[in-house]
């Protein structure tokens, strides 16, 4: 099930990048790991390496995948706003990235997020606006399950032969379906403590608890 969520989040990243950042954000490795204190985070450094290329990690907390999909998408978009700030040299946080200032609020609200203030973390509380919800619906990102059923399809209604109802043209519910997209995720396991992580690329990753390279599971 996590592999389906990974594929869904990877596709959502591409769509949000296109819609809200003019496709100018660099790729990031999307992970789903335990993170009980936060819905998501992005690494300040480019901690993943792939054949000489390096990438930031955006993690979505495994504990909160049961939230409404628009809230999960909002968390992803929130972290993408941080990536935008880093790429453009904008100081949008302080206190080791915990406190979000008004520059972050401006970046996020320009991209259909509702941002509220909370003591100690600043302008960080994130909710989807109605406009973002419309974008989610337009690109068929209503749920990871629907994403998988549609074979990873993420075009707007009418593209690639899909209808606005999700691409089911026949009365028996078979015509117009897109073939199921193979998951692009990889699982890596630490040979010492056996902690695992999923990633959307072939990468080299080190377990910081054991100082051992994590091994890709075939």
Question: Can you walk me through this structure?
Answer:
It contains 5 helices and 14 strands. It has helices spanning 2-21, 69-87, 102-109, 130-138, 144-149; strands spanning 29-33, 40-42, 48-50, 53-55, 57-61, 93-94, 99-100, 113-118, 122-128, 186-189, 196-199, 206-207, 212-213, 215-217. The strands form 6 sheets. A 3-stranded mixed beta sheet has the order 1-5-2, with helices on one face. Helix 1 (2-21) crosses helix 2 (69-87). It starts with a helix and ends with a strand. The model is unreliable at 153-183 (pLDDT under 50).
Strand content: 15-25%
Q: Taking Cα atoms only, what radius of gyration do you get, to the nearest Å?
A: 18 Å
State the share of residues found in helices, binned by percent. Answer: 25-40%
Number of strands: 14
Determine the mean pLDDT.
78
- The order of strands across the largest sheet is 1-5-2
Largest sheet: 3 strands, mixed
| Beginning-to-end CA distance, first to last residue | 17 Å
Backbone shape: globular
SSE order, as H and E? HEEEEEHEEHEEHHEEEEE
Secondary-structure content class: alpha+beta
Number of helices: 5
In the predicted model, the low-confidence regions spanning at least 5 consecutive residues are 153-183
